[in-house]
Design goal:
The termini are far apart. The chain has a single domain, classed as RutC-like (60s Ribosomal Protein L30, Chain: A, 2-Layer Sandwich), CATH 3.30.1330. It is built from two helices and three strands; from the N terminus they run αβαββ. Helix content is 35%, strand content 25%.
């Protein structure tokens, strides 16, 4: 697991892109995301990375949580509509 919020956010977004590609779609079909941050103070840095990947600006919830597994600083859950 990467150490900085920027690195982890980048990897989260790449993971979402990979899952969507495996399903035959892309980020433009994402309609909702839920983002979990271990520290709400990381929101600005996380959001800068997130905005580069989610250009279509899907609906989003972003919450701070007490803990994430394996030392993660963030997690992204995405819902996409398939044609």
């Amino acid at each position: 697991v990467a150490k900085t919020i920027e690195e982890q956010a980048e990897q989260c977004c790449k993971n979402v892109e990979a899952v969507l590609a495996a399903a035959g779609t892309d980020m433009s079909h994402v309609v909702k995301t839920t983002c979990f941050l271990a520290e709400i103070a990381d929101f600005k840095a996380f959001n800068e990375v997130y905005a580069k990947h989610f250009i279509s600006k899907p609906a989003r919830s972003c919450v701070a949580v007490k803990d994430l597994p394996a030392g993660a600083l963030c997690e992204v859950e995405a819902t996409a509509v398939l044609d």
